[in-house]
Design the sequence.
DNA sequence: CGTATACTTGAATTGAGTCAATAAGTGTGG
DNA sequence: CCACACTTATTGACTCAATTCAAGTATACG
């Protein structure tokens, strides 16, 4: 199963492996595990405050810093493949990653979009159950799973932090399950977009603008539908004066409260 | 319909809360939190070997035993409601529990079926995000969340055990996401049934027989479809001589290998 | 043995998918 | 800056898997 998917991914013209630590290596195609010389320090890390690293004792944090490596990814580059031996855990520093599962017949399910500060790649089993691909140019922070496990043993706070994050992910995952199981395409898309603005938006009074990093196909494969349906539904929202779309990657919520209704109601003027 | 029943039950002022600790109390209606005198001991617990309690140091185990309470549930009884303060974590000892989310318009999504040995109810947030209802008469083991958290602090192995179980659940959850997002009703049902037999079946050579604890409506609400579609799909499988259904709750896999194909193929004679 | 509940089957309807064509971007090189 | 190629998004017409609505049948239970 995993094998087939991996093959499928590769047949689609898989891009080269990730460039690790930037400039010095960027021309070559380094093997995973190779390290570069531009190691960004944690002190300037944009997600320092809410990634795994947050809320962990100083000592643990320093040791985390020691085992970690930065990796740069270009758009659509694959970080790891479904079925690869799961040797590392990652935190996304910058950009956007899609975790995706390929079927042998070409169907694809985007399992999760990872946003900055979130981590991914931890498992019970030995192999990744999905591929990780950069949606846009991205930077991730890599932790060897073994080293992380050792640190978890030594510092229960880290273990507990990872547990909490896993639980939160489980809760999010259930939301998606509900979307996919019981909601119409319109409701799914509305929920999805709202989650994105609400996560991004700090100032509530500001005009609600959303810049989508991912394309329609990615969204469709996440929401269990097709790019055509996504386009149609967006057009319908536009027709109801709920949103406007100055360019395909930007959505402005003209009637934010009205739009919220779309999460539960689909029975309007379809 | 299961849906109406449960909603009705709730609106009518809720069925009595679970009977705690069996026989001595079974006539009365004890309040939650009250304890009875028939406290089954862990030593005879059927799931001792693979529940949270497994693989934990003796000392931690003894303390776990101290904070736990058994609770008996009758079929369709609700253990806790969506939105209740999440004060406890549970392990299912015997029976089957469905975790379910209700929409205001009557739609329902079964989020998970809990089988013996699994635990549920742990969260980051303060309130349960779903209701827990017994599918059939069931027994659960209740641990106060706070006490469990304290034990986790003291015994990292317990923490680590819970983390692993959460990760495994996350993996299962992803499988469901794929089912709901990209598979046809036939594929979903086949995957679902196979997961149940494979989990239950110890002996591989034996005839593959599956006794379903849950009704069609529950299955439909889990797989994002309708009871009618479930019935039709089962009939189709029967027509293809893949299964037989001596009674509605029992499925015999006449052509187990052929049936497995149905998880990925739907392009036969529909 | 009747009544409630769950399950199955049939017929009609529809939301969303498929296929196909057009439009709008995006990037490249002259 | 424009022409060309290429990718991504939108729109339209048609189709179909699955839902809905409506009986009918089986099964369990007091």
Sequence:
């Amino acid at each position: 199963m995993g094998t087939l998917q991996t093959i499928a991914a590769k047949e689609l013209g898989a891009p080269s492996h990730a460039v690790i630590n930037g400039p010095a290596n960027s021309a070559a195609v380094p093997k995973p595990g190779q390290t570069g010389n531009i190691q960004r320090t944690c002190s300037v890390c944009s997600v320092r405050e809410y990634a795994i690293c947050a809320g962990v004792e100083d000592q643990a944090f320093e040791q985390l810093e020691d085992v970690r490596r930065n990796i740069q990814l270009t758009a659509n580059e694959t970080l790891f493949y479904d079925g690869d031996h799961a040797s590392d855990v990652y935190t996304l520093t910058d950009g956007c990653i899609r975790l995706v599962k390929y079927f042998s017949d070409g169907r694809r399910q985007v399992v999760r979009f990872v946003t900055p500060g979130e981590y991914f790649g931890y498992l019970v089993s030995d192999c990744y159950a999905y591929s990780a691909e950069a949606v846009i140019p991205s930077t991730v922070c890599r932790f060897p799973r073994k080293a992380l496990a050792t640190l978890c043993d030594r510092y229960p706070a880290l273990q507990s932090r990872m547990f909490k994050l896993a639980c939160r992910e489980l809760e999010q995952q259930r939301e998606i399950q509900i979307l996919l199981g019981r909601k119409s395409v319109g409701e799914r898309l509305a929920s999805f977009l709202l989650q994105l603005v609400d996560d991004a938006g700090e100032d509530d009074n500001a005009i609600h603008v959303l810049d989508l990093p991912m394309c329609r196909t990615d969204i469709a494969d996440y929401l269990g539908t097709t790019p055509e349906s996504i386009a149609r539904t967006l057009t319908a929202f536009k027709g109801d004066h709920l949103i406007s779309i100055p360019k395909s990657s930007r959505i402005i919520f003209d009637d934010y409260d009205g739009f919220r209704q779309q999460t539960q109601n689909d029975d309007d003027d379809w």
In short: The first helix of chain B runs from residue 2 to 11. DSSP finds eight helices and twelve strands in chain B.
